[in-house]
Each structure stands twice: as C-alpha cells, then as structure tokens.
Amino acid sequence: MNIWKKAILALLCCMVTVAPAIAAESIVIKGSTTVLPIAQGALEGYMKANKGVQISLSGGGSGEGIKAIIDNTADIGNSSREIKKEEIAFAGKKGIKPVAHVVAFDALVPVVHNSNPVKDLSTEQLSLIYQGKITNWKEVGGKDMKIVVISRDSSSGTFESWDHFVMKKAKVSPRAQMLASNGAVYTAVSKNRYSIGYLGMGYVKKGVKAVNVGGVQATPETALSRQYPMSRELYMYTNGEPRGETAKFLAFVKSPAGQKIVATNGFVPLKADVPATKGKKK
Description:
Elements: H1 2-14, E1 25-31, H2 36-49, E2 53-60, H3 62-70, E3 76-79, H4 85-93, E4 98-113, E5 120-121, H5 123-131, E6 148-152, H6 157-167, E7 177-179, H7 182-190, E8 195-200, E9 208-210, E10 212-213, H8 220-225, E11 231-239, H9 244-254, H10 256-264
Parallel strand pairs: 1-2, 1-3, 5-10, 6-7, 6-8
Antiparallel strand pairs: 3-11, 4-8, 4-9, 4-11
Helix pairs in contact: 9-10
C-alpha cells in the first residue's frame, strides 16, 4: 500500500497544471500617412488602458488602406480621402461593405522653404505652378528663382485631395518630384530653397513655411468652418459596422481622450471645444 501511495504522489508531483491561455485581441490598421500620427497616438493610449489588446499599424497611403479593407487584410483602413465609387463597386463584388468613420478634420497646406518670401497663393496660381506653366518664383511675387515642384505620389489620398482642390484633373508636370509620404515632402521642402510642396496640417512645423491660400490661413477654426478652401475629413474605414475590439478602439478615437490626441498631433478635432494646439513635435 505504501508503494502505491508513493507512486501516486510521484505522479502528482510530475503533473503540471496549465491554465488555458487567453488569446489576446488584435487589430490591424493600414493606410494613409496623414492619418498615421493620429492612429499611432490612439493605439498607444488604447493599448495602455487595455493590456490584452495588440494593435499593428502601417502606412502606405490611403489607396492601400482602402485596398486592405476590400482584401480583408486589415480591420481598419486609414484614408485622407473619401472612398471612390469604383472602389465601393469592387468591394461589393467581394462581399465587402466599407463603412466610413470620420475621426478628424484637416487642411491641405502649401509649404515653401523658410527663406521664401511668398506668403499667399491662389488655387489658380498653385495649379499653374504644378502644371509647370509658372516656373519662376518672381511670377508670383517671389525672388528670381526657378520653382522646384514636390508632390505626393498617385496612391496618396493627399494627392487625390490636391487634384480635387487645385488641379481639377489637370496633369502635374512630369518634372515634379513625386514622394511617398508627408514626412518625405516635409524633408524635401525644408532642404530646398527653390521648392514648393503640400502637407496635411499636422505635418506643418518648423523647417517649412505655410502659404495662405486666397488670403486665408489654414487654422483649426478655418478648417472646421470650411472657410479655408482646402479643408477635408480624415477617415478610418471598416468592413461593415465595427464590432468587438475594433468598435471599442474607434469609440476611443472619437472620445474626448482620443480627440485630444488628434489636437496634440496638429489636426482638427471633430468638436470645436477640444483645444486644437500641438503638444509635441512629429
């Protein structure tokens, strides 16, 4: 009997009870580089408050964000433009129902090198510059210097917004430098005294100079009121109405805490009562 007791005791000592692992919730976010700082700040805040949640985030442009929703490779697709009719039609063929969630407002801001004296341009002047029909800064009140045109690439929602507000289907000069992100445009303009580019307002900071458009300065107030002529919404898209952790994350982005993150990153909150001042550099 003692032998059996010893055997059972040895067996019990060798057994390890493992509690079933709780699978962590995960959210995949892809798309617009304009929306990227908002999404980055929001995921940091959300993951801090919700320890079991994992969120992955990547850029690539608005087109990539919407494509990721259609291809079902992301829970959220960030976009600085509205989804196109042909994208909606293509999504429908795949059984996908894109739903737009406006998370902030933005202004598309022309920027030049800090040394450039030009302070104001009309949308017509901007169009002619980007078409290559105005090629010297002296033609628009600046110094006798050639103009170096810097643009976003065609997969960018910011490029599409520029086309909508400024180009109106006119072709961008083939001499323009086409860059893949807001950050790349900022760096290029900050280093070239001949250059002009355009940025989402959250990317406008020391190192470049914002140019007024038609006499109107891009501010949170003029963007929210639409007085500024190149104001736009920023979106997060989902396939159908969001559920589970994705729904909770989007609710956080739209909450007062999330909208403070929008303001801190230099964009415009959904409500005017959230202070829209930058609190950190990007």
